[in-house]
Amino acid sequence: MIGTIIHGLWSEESGQDTVEYTLLLAFVCFASAALFIGGGGTINAIWITAQGLLSNASTAAS
Domain total for the chain? Predict the structure, then answer.
């Protein structure tokens, strides 16, 4: 009886696709998070540069 249950679980493949898609989605999420964290410094530098240029233009226009 136990052997039949274990064999049935071992040969069952109906949930395999769900597990594979879940792992793929987790990989995409982690890769996206790594890109956003890595790009945060670059976006901050662009923002600071733009802020400085706008401040200089405002001062020159006054």
Answer: 1
Q: Which residue has the tokens 């995409």?
A: 28
- Structural domain for 49, as ranges: 17-61
User: What is the C-alpha separation between 11 and 17, in angstroms, rounded?
Assistant: 14
- CA 23/CA 20 separation, integer angstroms: 5
Summarised one tens digit per residue, pLDDT across range 5-46 is 767 766 666 667 788 888 999 999 999 888 888 777 788 889
Residue 15 gets which letter from DSSP? T
Find, among 51, 5, 54, the residue nearest to 62 by Cα.
54
The half-sphere exposure of 50 on its side-chain side, counting CA atoms within 13 A, is: 6
